[in-house]
Amino acid sequence: MSAFTTRLSAVAEGVRIALDAVRANKVRAGLTILGIAVGVFVVVAISAAIHGINQSVANDFASTGPTTFFVSRYPISFENCDGSDGTCAWLRNPPIRPNEVESLRRLPSIEAVGERLDWGTKVKYRERELPSASVEGYSAEWTTISAPEVYPGRAFTSAEARTGARVAVITTLMATRLFDESDPVGKSVTLNGVPFEVIGVYKDNSSFLSGGERPKAVIPVQSLIRYVGARASGVSLAVKPREGVARDIALDDVTATLRGMRGTRPRDESSFAIITQDKLLETYNSIFGMFFLVMIALSAVGLIVGGVGVVAIMMISVTERTREIGVRKALGATKATILWQFLVEAATLTGIGGAIGLFVGWLGALGIRSFTPIQASIPPMAVVVALGASAVTGILFGMLPASRAARLDPVDALRYE
C-alpha cells in the first residue's frame, strides 16, 4: 500500500510540476499543446465523419434489402476515359430497353424490377420556386424495393406509372419550402412548366450516398420522360430476387436473359453492368481508405510537431531544475523516480493537448451533423485512440529529457548554477 501511495504521490507531483511549467512558459507549452491538439482533432473529426458515413451506407443497403442488385448501362468506373475501345468500350453500351425490363420481370426468380431515372428541373407552386430541384422517375415497384414512408397521401399506382400520369410524391423538405405548414396533397405544382398533382409526401431517408436531404419529387418514370424532358437512355434498374432465391441465382438469370436478348457471344463482354452491394461496398472502401490514410498522415504530423515541442520544453525544464534534481538524488531519489517524474510531466502536457483536441473534435462532429448530410458521431474507440496517442507521444518524446535528468550526477547537479 505504501508503494502505491508513493507512486500516486509521484504522479500528482509530476502533474503539478507540468501545470506550473505551462503557467511559467505559456508560449512554449502552448505550441506543444497546440501540436498535440491538432493531431487529436484530426483523428476525432475524421473518425466521426467516417463513422457517420459508414452508418449511412449501412442504412442505404438495409433499405433496399441485402439481396437487391442493380443493372445499369454503365459500370462504376474511375478510369481515365479517352473514348477508345481500350479504355472505355462501355461508352457504347446500348440503353436498357422496355422489352428487356418486361422480360426480367417475368423471370421466376425475380420478385420486382424497378426502373429509376434521375433528373433535375424547376419546381414551382404559385409564387414559390425551386430552380434546380431533384426529380426522380420510378416505376410502380418503387414501393416494393425501397418501401418509402408516405404520409400524408399515397404513392402512385401501377396504372398511373404505366400510363405516365402527372402525379408526384414530394419529400417533406420540398413540402415545407413550397407549402409551409399547409397540406400539399391535392395541390398542383409545375415541373418544367407542366402541372403535376401532389398525391403524397414522404420522408426522404437521406444519406451520404444519396446526397443528403434535399427538395425532391418522385414521379412515374414515363411522366419524367414524356413531360419533363428526361432522356430514357439513362434508365437503370433495381432488381429484387424472390424470397428464398439466392442472389447469385437471380443474378445469373438476369445476366443470361439480357445477354441472350442482345445476342452477346460467349467470348464477348456484357454490354451492361450488374452492380451488387458487395461491389458498391468495395468501391466505397477503396475511396474512404484514402481518406483514412490522409487522416493518419495529418494526425501524425500534428503529433510529431507536439512531440518536438515536448522535447524542447522538457529539456529546458531539466536544465532549469538541475539543482533540484541533485538535491532529490542526494536525499535518496533513484534514477527510476526521477525518470518517472519527468515522464508524468511530459504525458500531462500532451494529455492536456489531447483533451483540448478531443473537445474541438466533438464540436467539429456537431458541425458536420448540422451542416452536411453526414450524421457524424464519435465512436468510443476514437476517443481511446486519440487520448492514448497523445499520452504515448508524451512518453516517447519525453524519454530523452527524462533519461538525461535521471543520469545527472548528483554532485555535478548540486554544483550547477
- H/E topology pattern: HHEHHEEHEHEHEEEHEHEHHHHH
Rg is 32 Å
Determine the number of helices (DSSP H or I, runs of at least 4 residues): 14
Largest sheet, if any?
Answer: 6 strands, mixed, barrel
For the terminal residues, how far apart are their CA atoms? 38 Å
β-strand amount? 15-25%
Find the structural class using helix and strand composition: alpha+beta
Summarize model confidence as the mean pLDDT: 82
Shape: elongated
How many beta-strand segments?
A: 10
Q: Give me the side-by-side strand order of the main sheet.
A: 2-3-8-5-7-6
Helical coverage, percent range = 55-70%
Q: Uncertain regions: pLDDT < 50 for 5+ in a row?
A: none
Concise description?
With 417 residues, this protein is α+β, with helices and mostly antiparallel strands. It contains 14 helices and 10 strands.
What would your notes on this structure say?
By secondary structure, this protein is of the alpha+beta class. Helices cover about 55% and strands about 15% of the residues. The protein contains 14 helices and ten strands. The chain has helices at about 1-25, 25-65, 85-90, 100-105, 140-145, 160-165, 170-180, 220-230, 245-260, 275-320, 320-330, 335-370, 380-405, 410-415; strands at about 70, 110-125, 130-140, 150-155, 165-170, 190, 195-205, 215-220, 235-240, 275. The chain has a six-stranded mixed barrel with strand order 2-3-8-5-7-6. Helix 1 crosses helix 2 (about 25-65), helix 2 packs across helix 12 and helix 10 crosses helix 12 (about 335-370). The radius of gyration is 32 Å and the shape is elongated. About 35% of the residues are buried.
